[in-house]
């Protein structure tokens, strides 16, 4: 647990005592119009000591469903803990969020520049400030993301298979799927791992879209985690997951063999068998009708919702090997 003097938490120059609520500004740079940009960091502390949990979203400015999940945690008061401290950062890449773009104005992907630099690019400076001023104060992080443009992710948690300490927390969260994936170089997840800060990465839905089922999965999972840590306020109940979590060791993409108009015929999150028809690629002239079939049995954890695809485009992400 991070050290605090006399149970006083100091973040971004602000002191927060036990039982206090405070909103501090994660300020890095102004807009090009010289207007200031406020990136609120919302901190809620119980009168009782305990763990410090950080909820983050909006590392990519177009992933609004993650922002909505953290917004609901705040709006509903779920972020007011029974013990310990909860920190919420709903929109880290506020520059991308303002411009409805994934990247920063400098064209960089924030999730590829960690741990950043105090004298580097704008994205690098934001990454550095996050790692220097926020992360040392926390015990555990949940970072909310979505799928890319047109590709819808089933609600899932991602972390490295080597990080077995997260298995219990993942089971407590109760997302439909856990996808073991390597820590990407210079990612937020990788940098936190190197500092010994456990992080669950939540993926669900797609960019520029808010989906109720994905939002509910993220909010309910967060409540279960807080309940698991004995931090959930008695005002709330943590419902049990509808289905047992499926742990996926390996997966692969099924890609388009033809360019054309595409329509999926299977639902996200469903189990399919080898040879099942998952969708069809057609052409505008009624001459082509190609059935996209499952190359193996598994779960569909991502599907392409774009009506037009090109040869080689990723259509379905399917599990190939489950954890026994």
From TrEMBL:
Cofactor: Zn(2+)
PANTHER family listed in its UniProt record: BLL3975 PROTEIN, SUCCINYLGLUTAMATE DESUCCINYLASE_ASPARTOACYLASE FAMILY PROTEIN
Keywords on record: Hydrolase, Metal-binding, Zinc
Organism field: Flaviramulus basaltis
InterPro entries: AstE_AspA_cat, N-alpha-Ac-DABA-like, N-alpha-Ac-DABA_deacetylase
Record has Transferase as a keyword: no
Molecular function GO labels: hydrolase activity, acting on carbon-nitrogen (but not peptide) bonds, in linear amides; hydrolase activity, acting on ester bonds; metal ion binding
Name of the protein described by the UniProt record: Succinylglutamate desuccinylase/Aspartoacylase catalytic domain-containing protein
Short name of one Pfam family: AstE_AspA_cat
Stretches assigned to the Succinylglutamate desuccinylase/Aspartoacylase catalytic domain: 49-229
Keyword field contains Membrane: no
């Amino acid at each position: 647990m991070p050290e605090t003097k006399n149970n006083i938490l100091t973040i971004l120059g602000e002191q927060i005592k036990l039982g206090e609520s405070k909103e501090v500004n994660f300020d890095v740079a102004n807009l090009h119009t010289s207007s200031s940009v406020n990136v609120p960091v919302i901190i809620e502390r119980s009168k009782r000591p305990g763990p410090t949990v950080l909820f983050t979203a909006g590392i990519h400015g177009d992933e609004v469903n993650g922002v909505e999940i953290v917004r609901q945690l705040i709006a509903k008061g779920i972020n007011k803990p029974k013990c310990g401290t909860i920190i919420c950062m709903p929109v880290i890449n506020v520059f991308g969020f303002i411009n409805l773009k994934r990247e920063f104005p400098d064209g960089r992907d924030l999730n590829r520049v960690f741990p950043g630099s105090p004298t580097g690019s704008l994205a690098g400076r934001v990454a550095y400030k996050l790692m220097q001023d926020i992360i040392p104060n926390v015990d555990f992080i949940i970072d909310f993301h979505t799928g890319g443009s047109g590709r819808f992710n089933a609600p899932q948690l991602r972390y490295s298979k080597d990080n077995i300490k997260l298995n219990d927390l993942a089971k407590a969260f109760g997302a439909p799927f856990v996808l073991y994936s390597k820590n990407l170089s210079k990612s937020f997840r990788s940098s936190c791992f190197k500092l010994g800060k456990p992080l669950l990465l939540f993926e669900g839905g797609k960019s520029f879209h808010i989906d109720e089922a994905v939002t509910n999965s993220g909010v309910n999972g967060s409540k279960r985690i807080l309940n698991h840590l004995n931090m959930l306020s008695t005002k709330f109940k943590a419902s049990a997951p509808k289905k047992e979590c499926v742990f996926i060791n390996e997966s692969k993409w099924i890609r388009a063999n033809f360019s054309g108009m595409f329509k999926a015929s299977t639902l996200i999150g469903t189990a399919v068998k080898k040879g099942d028809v998952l969708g069809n690629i057609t052409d505008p002239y009624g001459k082509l009708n190609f059935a996209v079939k499952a190359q193996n049995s598994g779960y569909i954890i991502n599907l392409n919702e774009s009506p037009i695809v090109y040869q080689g485009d990723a259509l379905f992400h399917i599990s190939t090997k489950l954890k026994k």
